[in-house]
Design brief:
2 helices; 36% strand
């Protein structure tokens, strides 16, 4: 039953105002709703995320979430133009833009204003 339901991600923020500037200003997100506890964003396919304040933001060494995109090169170029800095991991299959190809997919990672690792993924079909 859960597999038929949209998945909703939690995105931790040490400074909610700063995080909102990043997600709304640099990534171009529009809030769906604001609550006393944070901000809701809605994405394609009935998915979404809740940005909430916590002192634990940025402590995970793994990706918090990823967006499945149709054209990763276009997305990376657009986000770089908006001031998003992509991570440059030393991995096999990495190109000059930091995009890694392997395992049937292409991926690129960036950190948000709170230090959370986020990713873009494109199926390498």
């Amino acid at each position: 039953m859960l597999q038929q339901s949209p998945l909703y991600a939690y995105i931790p923020a040490r400074d909610l105002a700063r995080a909102r500037q990043f997600y709304e200003g640099k990534l171009g997100f529009t809030p769906k709703a604001e609550t006393a506890g944070g901000v809701h964003y809605e994405f394609g396919g009935g998915t979404g995320a809740f940005l909430y304040p916590t002192p634990n933001a940025g402590t995970s060494q793994a990706s918090q979430a990823f967006w499945q995109v149709a054209d990763i090169r276009r997305e990376v170029t657009d986000l770089k133009a908006r001031g998003v800095v992509f991570e440059n991991y030393d991995m096999p299959g990495k190109d000059a833009d930091g995009i890694v190809t392997g395992g049937g997919a292409m991926a690129a990672w960036f950190k948000d204003s709170e230090g959370n690792i986020m990713a873009l993924i494109q199926s390498a079909a």
